[in-house]
Amino acid sequence: MDQVPGSAGDHAAAGGPPGCYRHPDRATGISCTRCERPICPECMVSASVGFQCPDCVRDGGGTGPAPESMRPRTVAGGVVSADPRLVTKVLLGINIAVWVAVMVVGDRLVRDLDLFGRALTPSGVEGVAEGQWYRLLTSAFLHEQPMHIAFNMLALWWLGGPLEAALGRSRYLALYLLSGLGGSALAYLLADPNQPSLGASGAVYGLFGAMAVLLRRMRQDMRPVFVLLAINLAFTFFPGSQISWQAHVGGLVVGAAVAFGMVHAPRGHRVAVQRATCAAALLVVVVVVVLRTLQLTG
After folding, report:
1. N or C: where does the chain have the smaller number of CB atoms within 10 Å of the terminal CB?
2. Which of 11, 139, 184, 248 is catalytic?
3. Which residue windows are transmembrane per the record (predicted)?
């Protein structure tokens, strides 16, 4: 990175990037992922996502727990945790546990948990339109084929860890669940109500969208994510693939929108904006589901 003479104020006044907080004469476009102060290459300390400044690294390395208000924060304002993959591990465990249960119980469990709008089953008319709204969420943790769960869990591990570290546990969990619900809602709205669907792909595509937003926010190379996303979308829309493109697109859009609200929320109103973003995403899901239910039952 080029070094530009002048103070931080000079850079800002000229409309250029700010100066490093420790070396004001060095313009930089990189910020610490914890405190968001500008840092130059000499001050950058590599982290799981982005870079941290020396002060945050030193403050985060103490032997005792710091007060909540003094603990280092992620780029989205979440508290930096000792295990940045804990929620990802729990989500992996739930998906795998449900898959094992399907292997043991068989098709009956799949019929009880998968997503479909409204259809005649051996137990009568069932589906989301008949009040079984839980299928919007349970189907996002349901898999049958080994390759299906393998690909989804690999993507969850690859994308989930960095996103959890960047957002914090509660924000990351909200992102994952809302992405899964967004994918289910669009599938419920547009797919054949008799056609069942299942899988964590909607939530995983939401993580793809969130990762693209995060990398852009951190000014990092977005090409690897875009290439992998393009490959997956190509498989999604490949003729005869029998993949629920509605769930993929719904999850992708909701994940990107929620992540944008989280990482671009102004610091002075960060929590309020992030909560409003999540509430708006959930409201859209509810409205879509209600409208589709009225359509199928009216």
Report:
1. C
2. 248
3. 173-191, 197-215, 222-239, 245-264, 276-294
